[in-house]
């Protein structure tokens, strides 16, 4: 079984009330790589699962599998809020970049 499928099987058993951390997933799957190095790989694999349509939710305490549509909707609302805040930050930085770029062009 591929590692992504193994992660999926672990997550199917995890409820919102008791989320699982990335380190716990690594230990449960008995992955021998350094957790600090595998952590980025794990986050990438979880993102791939989400892209594939597998609903992996997360909180500040870890990952979990939603037990119903209401739980998934609640997570999606929070997730969208974080995306919107990141988009606002991106726009602020982009405006600064464009302003500086325009000034540099005018000074030539």
Spatial extent as radius of gyration: 19 Å
The largest sheet has its strands arranged as 1-2
Report the β-strand fraction as a percent range: 5-15%
Quote the CATH topology of the largest domain. Answer: Arc Repressor Mutant, subunit A
Helical residue percent band: 55-70%
Gross morphology: elongated
Number of separate helices: 4
SS elements, strand count: 2
CATH superfamily of the largest domain: Winged helix-like DNA-binding domain superfamily/Winged helix DNA-binding domain
Low-confidence stretches: none
The average pLDDT is 90
CATH class term of the largest domain: Mainly Alpha
CATH architecture classification name of the largest domain:
Orthogonal Bundle
Tell me about the largest β-sheet. 2 strands, antiparallel
Structure class: mainly alpha
Number of domains: 2
Order of helices and strands: HHHEEH
Q: Gap between N and C termini, in Å?
A: 60 Å
Structure commentary:
β1 and β2 (62-64) form a beta hairpin. The longest helix has 38 residues, at 69-106. The protein is mainly alpha-helical and 108 residues long. The protein has helices at 3-12, 22-28, 35-51, 69-106; strands at 57-59, 62-64. The model has no long low-confidence stretch (mean pLDDT 90). The protein contains four helices and two strands, in the order αααββα. It folds into two domains: 1-67, Arc Repressor Mutant, subunit A (Orthogonal Bundle); 68-108. Helices cover 67% and strands 6% of the residues. Strands 1-2 form a two-stranded antiparallel ribbon. α1 (3-12) packs across α3 (35-51).
């Amino acid at each position: 079984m591929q590692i992504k499928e193994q992660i999926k099987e672990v997550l199917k058993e995890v409820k919102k009330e008791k989320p699982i951390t990335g380190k716990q997933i690594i230990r449960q799957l008995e992955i021998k790589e350094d957790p600090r190095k595998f952590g980025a790989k794990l986050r990438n694999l979880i993102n791939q699962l989400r892209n594939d349509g597998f609903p992996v939710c997360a909180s500040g305490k870890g990952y979990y599998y939603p037990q119903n549509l209401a739980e998934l909707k609640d997570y999606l609302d929070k997730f969208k809020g974080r995306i919107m805040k990141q988009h606002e930050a991106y726009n602020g930085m982009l405006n600064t970049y464009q302003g500086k770029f325009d000034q540099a062009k005018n000074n030539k």
